[in-house]
Amino acid sequence: MPSTKPLMVNDAPPKRTQHYGILAQEHVAMLVSNIGARLLRGTTAYYRNAFDLSLTEWRILMVLNSTQSLNVSELSGAADLDKAAVSRSLVLLEERKLISVEQTRTRGRAAFAKLTAEGRKLSEKLLEVSRERETRLLKSFSPADREHLKALLQQLSQALAGVDWDR
Fold first, then answer.
1. How many other C-beta atoms can be found within 10 angstroms of the C-beta atom of residue 110?
2. How far from the centroid of its chain's Cα atoms is residue 58's Cα?
3. How many Cβ atoms are within 10 Å of 35's Cβ, its own excluded?
4. CATH dotted code for 53-139
5. Helix, coil or strand: residue 165
6. Cβ(53)–Cβ(61) below 8 Å
7. Which of 6, 9, 15, 139 has its CA 20 to 30 A from that of 157?
8. What's the half-sphere exposure (Cβ side, CA atoms, 13 Å) at 130?
């Protein structure tokens, strides 16, 4: 019969190694991926709970807030989203009366989306909230460090444009 040793108060379970932490220490791509995943989870949950918006819908509203109107293709490019995802989200945003979509007569099936007054009001609030959230996230960074981080991330983004990562 196997003997069982009673668990003592000081007997803690063995620590689990956080493999993603080890990988991130040696691989920039893993570190950036982990940070991106955490930001995505938090951002998605926040905007869903606070405003009943998906991140795709949030991105569309933010882009439309900076322009008069865009067609689906332009909006897709400006928000860096798939055209099908933009089309689906436009339907939902139109149902909520946050945007209006008008078919063009001169460009075939092309349609232009623009914010309604209610959509403009919400997008202004979203802009304010997103700036507050970013300020909180980067509060321990000096202004120079924030600018440097932004420049490095833009440089990394440009480097990715020329690299085929699925090979």
1. 14
2. 9
3. 12
4. 1.10.10.10
5. coil
6. yes
7. 139
8. 16
pTM comes to: 0.77
Q: What is the pLDDT along the chain (167 residues), one digit of tens a residue?
A: 444 444 444 454 444 444 456 665 678 888 888 899 999 999 999 999 999 999 999 999 999 999 988 999 999 999 999 999 999 999 999 999 999 998 877 666 678 999 999 999 999 999 999 999 999 999 999 999 999 999 999 999 888 887 776 67
- For residues 137 and 163, give the distance between their C-alpha atoms in angstroms, rounded to a whole number: 29
Q: What is the 3-state secondary structure (H, E, C) of 58-99?
A: HHHHHHHHCCCCEEHHHHHHHHCCCHHHHHHHHHHHHHCCCE
Degrees (nearest 5) of the Cα angle 145, 149, 152? 135
Phi first, then psi, for residue 70 (nearest 5°) are -140, 150
Q: Where are the beta strands (DSSP E) in the chain?
A: 70-71, 99-103, 111-115
